[in-house]
Amino acid sequence: MAGTLDGKVAIVTGAGHGIGRVITLALLEAGARVAAAELDGQAVEDLQGAAEERGTGERFLGIVADVTQDHSAPNIVRATTENFGRLDILVNNAGINITSFRRPDAKDIGKFRDVTPQEFRRIIEVNVIAPFLMTRSALAPMLKQGWGRIINVTTSLDMMWRDFMQPYGGSKAANEAHLAAFALELEGSGVTANVLVPGGAANTRMVTRGLVPDRSKLIDPEVMVAPLVWLCSNASDGVTGQRFIGARWDDKLSPAEAAKKAGAPAAWQHLGVQAIMPDEMR
């Protein structure tokens, strides 16, 4: 994997914890330069330390920011391009669910009707509005150079309407619907838009230990690494409007075959919109 993404520049949101931390370090390992946007300043410092320990600190830029704020996206993109000279990849990973407002040992998520208006708004802001703001700002340099990758981290389809998973599920459904529309809008531009999901509940702080004490039952966030690096590389040119499930990626197959096995059209495209994928990968 080392060197696969040499010369590429990426932004990762929600980079300080869980899946975001894993994929940030993986992109650095693959040779990319990475701007890590995160609300938690201490997590950014910790991530900087981890990058330095791996010998990739000079290719790391930590940015403390709230990606739901209108000014944050253009500021993050500007800082990235000023530091690294370009922008190739945006990973919209930042996300929260109702457990983000609960104690780490909470055993009950609660009913949809018990969600407060403030909690509902915050989840929509992080999971729906922030990806739009970030994508809107990132597209200008990508379109100018005729190459780019937009990758949104959403969730399993059944989570989108499952009880006790709202408004998280609905917010991720909106996120993925917008991504599918972006993919169609960007067709032929050289900029692709795809979804990447673990394939179930991942071992992150979004699933409290009170809910799942046995963490071995959860998916390791590392399953995101191989499909993410492939999606960010030139090997995935022309692949857009797809959702890839990390847990289904088979490292024993060639990347193209693994992508066929792990991929499918992004949510709702089977209702009449044909995903765009090179013939050899159909």
Would you kindly provide a written description of the structure presented here, covering whatever features stand out?
It contains 7 helices and 8 strands, in the order βαβαβαβαβαβαβαβ. 46% of the residues are buried. By secondary structure, it is of the alpha/beta class. It starts with 8 loop residues before the first strand and ends in a 17-residue tail after the last strand. β2, α2 and β3 form a beta-alpha-beta unit. About 3% of the residues have low confidence. Strands 3-2-1-4-5-6-7-8 form an 8-stranded mixed β-sheet, sandwiched between helices.
Task: Lay out the secondary structure.
Elements: E1 9-13, H1 18-29, E2 33-38, H2 41-53, E3 60-64, H3 72-84, E4 89-92, H4 117-145, E5 148-153, H5 168-185, E6 191-197, H6 225-232, E7 242-245, H7 255-262, E8 263-265
Parallel strand pairs: 1-2, 1-4, 2-3, 4-5, 5-6, 6-7
Antiparallel strand pairs: 7-8
Helix pairs in contact: 3-4, 4-5
